[in-house]
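Issue 218. Parser rejects a valid record. Input:
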Amino acid sequence: MNVITSRDNVKIKYIRSLNTKKFRDQEKVFTVEGIKFVQEAFKEKADIRFVLFSESALLKDEVKDMLEGIKAEAFACTDDVFDSVAETVNAQGVLAVIGKKQESSLNFNHMKFAVMCDRIQDPGNLGTIIRTADAFGPAVVILNKGCVDQYNPKVVRASAGAIFRVPFIHADNDHEAVVNLKQAGFKVYSTVVESEYSFEDVEKSEKICVVIGNEGQGVSADIAGASHQKITIRMSGRAESLNASIAAGICIYEMRKKLL
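Output the parser choked on:
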């Protein structure tokens, strides 16, 4: 395996360009860093275009095992060149470029559980929501226009491999998305700070969609108004609020139990 020694190498420049959403969208690919995450990509049969290894990573037993079964194109580079493209401080010298999954349409007929993210902007929050949706799914994650890109490197890392399993739908029109959900038989519940209703008031249903709102503004008035019900997390302690991803985790867990 030839070793790339220049930061101006075509492959290295290509990987560096994928740090921008515009280029990820154009190329329909994204990057994953770390031995465990790249192994997860292989396990889930992701569309791996090529893998980059640092020289020091090639000395690790885990990487040697990975190379034995690898079918994707592989390249090696010096440690300093790898560091020039790595997004994380401890990327372990392994990075894969992966093709994006084909997204589902706005047809929700074959789905039972959905998590709609309304303008979630923090990458860590979105990644954690995706991970939770995977843990208590199967669930489809709906992203509207104001959401951070699900293939942002920080989202990918926070998803802890769930990015390969969870189906996504992009909703360009909030009203259309809610209407389609209702037509497909979903009960739509928006999570809000204050409501007279909580999880205890939610009836069991064949299909449920829970809406998670923006970190600062919550669920938009349009979506909340179009929902079947607005619900809140009743807290017994003195905290005034919860982090968006923690609140989302509680809501996803509780609403999943309401499915028939």
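Fixed in the parser; the record now loads. The longest strand covers residues 47-54.
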